[in-house]
Design goal:
Radius of gyration: 25 Å
Strand order of the largest sheet: 5-6-8-7
Distance between the termini: 31 Å
Length: about 525
């Protein structure tokens, strides 16, 4: 189960990258409508307005695709091989799933004609009750169905992966041989998906109610809930499960629900991006959404962790300072520019619970303070570009200057706390280890040698079963993690190693993880 949850967390990252990029594009073009930046003439120019409208339409179209994007991503990520067949089958599964639900809704008299606010108010419901009733349903791919958000995509993706892994190598009798193997998967999907749809027809109203209630509790918990989110989001970093928490907040009612132009919108990131397409967005709705978004990460990503890097460098042994400097300058810039923090965090979270808990606490405080002081900076990446595009360039109404002041304060707090604790408790951060001769040793001069070294460090070709990667980690399933040589892995440029159990291991490489995954796959293929 732990392996599956790890893989699921990784699967949920692919749609996020698309939405974050779309959000950045939306933020950039919205600047063209800001007279303070481009002048009133250009801001009101017809061609500019037309271009902005086109981008907004495209981005809203992407948001509408989110459920099926999650379905495809989950199915491909959880499929063991022939991933393209899993992706193909998922589209079939997604349509059949919602078509089945739509059919039974129709049998029960629930259709777009009977489930709209005007119809319900004419038949005795109050306006509020009518809106609540209508918000439980949605139209997906032209199919009237339950409003399931990304959960519908995750359910169909998981079922498709299960069917795919079970039947993609099935051999049928010779007379039916044409339908054997991967061709058998869509057939089994067609036979089984209506059953899943029927089950969810009865179950989802209760699940949906529970999810909405959890979202309501989170939203009503105020500053405490915001602090807990920030604290847990960092605390889960070593397990990789923070991805699941993030996606629940960003794309489901866990992150809030609100009405925009009479349509219910759920998930903090979706609410924020939808409001970005409005000519005159409700600022209170926007502030409520951003309390879970990148404004809470800027103080420790842009300021706190780079300051921690300086403290680690300052406390390193003299003979190791040059090498520590090379590593942590890169890590600090990565955190500052992109919001990818794991190369820094993995330098201390396993060797010092005190530093780790301090960091998680400060993350919670960052979210709390920004919410308390009404900062309004959105998107989800957390790097300096989010701060500029969705904060500084959006104007003083975002209160970006408060975010900046909090960040400066965090820089001092992180630096002096890290430096004091490292020296007081003699914490063995990089550059302070008792045996350092091999820590930064460069013995792999080419990709080929690097791949061979990594295979050897992982216990050989036969020990490596599956290779995946997320935004900063190489995620591996091995036959036996006890065969892993940690010292050799460090020599491949790793900034951290997480042995989850006797089968699963994660190696932190930061932004070069994609390259390392490709090198490892190529090396295994050639051996």
């Amino acid at each position: 189960m732990r392996t599956s949850i790890q893989k699921l967390g990784k699967c949920l990252m692919t749609p996020l990258s698309i939405i974050v990029a779309a959000g950045l594009l939306l933020g950039i073009v919205s600047l063209l409508q800001n007279p303070a930046i481009v002048g009133s003439t250009l801001a009101n120019y017809t061609l500019i307005q037309g271009f902005v409208g086109l981008v907004q339409t495209v981005v809203l179209g992407l948001f509408g695709l989110l459920p099926v994007l999650f379905a495809i991503s989950v199915a491909m990520g959880m499929a063991k091989d022939n991933k393209e067949v899993a992706a193909f089958s998922t589209v079939i599964a997604f349509v059949l799933f919602h078509s089945t639900i739509s059919y039974f809704l129709k049998l029960n008299g629930i259709t777009p004609d009977t489930m709209n606010a005007a119809y319900l108010t004419e038949h005795g419901k109050s306006q509020l009750d009518a809106v609540k009733a209508v918000s439980a349903y949605d139209t997906v791919f032209g199919i009237f169905t339950y409003r399931m958000s990304i959960f519908g995509g995750i359910i169909t993706g998981l079922w498709t992966a299960f069917i795919h892994n079970k039947f993609h190598k099935t051999e049928l009798p010779v007379a039916f041989g044409f339908f054997s193997g991967t061709r058998f998967v869509p057939i089994m999907i067609t036979l089984t998906m209506p059953v899943i749809g029927l089950v969810m027809y009865f179950i989802w109203p209760f699940l949906g109610m529970a999810i909405n209630q959890i979202g309501f509790i989170i939203s009503e918990s105020g500053y405490f809930g915001v602090f807990i989110y920030g604290f847990l989001e960092r605390l889960l970093i070593p397990t990789g499960l923070h991805h699941i928490l993030n996606q629940l907040i960003r794309f489901t009612p866990f992150g809030g629900s609100t009405l925009i132009n009479g349509e219910q919108v759920s998930g903090a990131l979706i609410i924020y991006n939808t409001l970005m397409t409005q000519a005159s967005p409700d600022l209170e709705q926007m502030r409520s959404a951003t309390k879970f978004l990148s404004q809470g990460t800027h103080p420790f990503m842009l300021f706190g962790l780079p300051a921690a890097c300086l403290a680690i460098y300052k406390t390193a042994k003299v003979e190791q300072k040059k090498r520590v400097k090379a590593v942590f300058i890169a890590a600090a810039f990565t955190s500052f520019l992109t919001g990818i923090t794991e190369p820094i965090e993995f330098a201390f979270i396993f060797i010092s619970p005190v530093l780790f808990l301090f960091h998680a606490f400060m993350a919670g405080m960052s979210f709390l303070l920004n919410n308390l002081l009404d900062v309004m900076i959105g998107n989800a990446q957390g790097g300096v570009f989010d701060f500029l595009i969705f904060g500084v360039f959006k104007g003083l109404e975002t209160r970006w200057y408060i975010n900046l002041l909090i960040g400066i304060g965090f820089a001092f707090i992180y630096y002096f706390t890290f430096k004091t604790l490292i020296l007081k408790f003699d914490i063995k951060t990089p550059g302070r280890e008792d045996e350092q001769e091999e820590l930064f040793e460069e013995i792999a001069e080419t990709d080929e040698k690097l791949g061979e070294l990594l295979v050897r460090a992982l216990g050989g070709k036969e020990n490596i079963k599956e290779i995946e990667n997320c935004i900063s980690r190489l995620r591996l399933i091995l036959d036996d993690t006890s065969q892993v040589n940690d010292d050799l892995i460090k020599q491949t440029g790793s900034l951290g190693i997480v042995k989850i159990n006797d089968k699963n291991i994660q190696i932190v490489y930061g932004t070069k993880v994609e390259k390392m995954a490709n090198i490892l796959k190529k090396t295994l293929k050639n051996l």
